[in-house]
Write a structure and sequence with these properties.
CATH superfamily of the largest domain: Histidine kinase-like ATPase, C-terminal domain
Number of domains: 3
Bound molecules: adenosine-5'-triphosphate, magnesium ion
Radius of gyration: 24 Å
Pfam families: HATPase_c (PF02518), HisKA (PF00512)
Structural class: alpha+beta
Organism: Sporolactobacillus nakayamae
CATH class of the largest domain: Alpha Beta
Order of helices and strands: EHHEEHHHHHEHEEHEEHHEE
Largest sheet: 7 strands, mixed
Shape: globular
EC number: 2.7.13.3
Domain Histidine kinase: 123-328
Distance between the termini: 41 Å
Catalytic activity: ATP + protein L-histidine = ADP + protein N-phospho-L-histidine
Helix content: 40-55%
CATH topology of the largest domain: Heat Shock Protein 90
Amino acid sequence: MIIIIYRESFLSVSEKDQFEEQLSVEIRFCINSDGYILECNKKGQALVERYGPYFLHFFPDHTACEAKDYLDAIMKSDDIVSALLCDKLSDRDLGTLYNGISKDGKIILVGYRTQMFTHLAGEIVHELRNPLTVIKGFIQLCGYTKEYDKYQPVILSEIDRMYTILENFLTLSLRKSKCQRMNPDEVCKSLISLLSAECVVNKVRLDYDIAYSESVCKIDLDKIKQVMINLLRNALEAFDEHTGEKKIMFRGSVEDNGYRFSLIDNGPGMETDVLNNLGKPLFTTKAKGTGIGLSLCKKIIADHQGTFCISSVNGKGTTVSFFLPFVSP
Ligand SMILES: Nc1ncnc2c1ncn2[C@@H]1O[C@H](COP(=O)(O)OP(=O)(O)OP(=O)(O)O)[C@@H](O)[C@H]1O
Ligand SMILES: [Mg+2]
């Protein structure tokens, strides 16, 4: 059974005028996989009375194909965000209208951004309050002791942390994507400079092996950089005193129909229960983690029509990779 929140753009303009009042609020349907409406709210009832109990019959001929594709897409979709949120949202907990997403019959079509934001906003306020308290304390201390040099690194690192939290939050917001066709190996080269600076500062050896590619992918470079920064930070934060020489390998490889970007670390890896929990929203094992990093990476890669993969051997290290499909040049 699927709950559909009606997507306004599928109605023709004239229909919109006629049903303006209905469309200004949520119209909810509960449908089966054939598109037969099992239940709906009051606003939905108005459409059912007029067009009958089949969801697809609501659409004028010229949008029928689009509507069918939409229905098929949400039936099949395994959108990572819905996967992430299916634990959190129950049928009763539907948020504000945004769009449709689905997962194997147990569908939730929700204003997930609203839901997520309400939740995240609380988290973010909470997360930002901690570094602010630390910064305030240290600045007060500087006032008493006049030892500015001593406290400056802590203050700066807390400010950096606040930037990270805000950056992540912004990426989850509705910022438009700026995709362009790019050679993936060129992308790798621009990522290397980013990775090497952080590795030098953290005394980690960085190796790389980038395969040349004639084909191109559609890439929003800023976002892919953000994925890399998140993955790199995870690797750096994972290293502990048991890791001998800390090493990170960055690999770019050509595969069938696409290009794979991999980041391999020789850190402690993950225990099975950590691996099982990855992908749950806000899951973290770190005292100061927000648990947004990987969810964000997965979302960005899904927006690129790519796939995301994590493998980890406890005690040996972790490999995180993502695959971006080639597009015609
Ligand atoms: N390379 C890695 N090696 C070991 N564990 C990892 C690695 N990458 C991720 N993890 C585990 O996955 C968890 C979730 O990572 P995620 O990036 O989503 O959140 P976080 O790093 O805890 O917080 P933040 O939102 O600040 O990134 C981490 O807390 C950590 O336990
Ligand atoms: Mg992280």
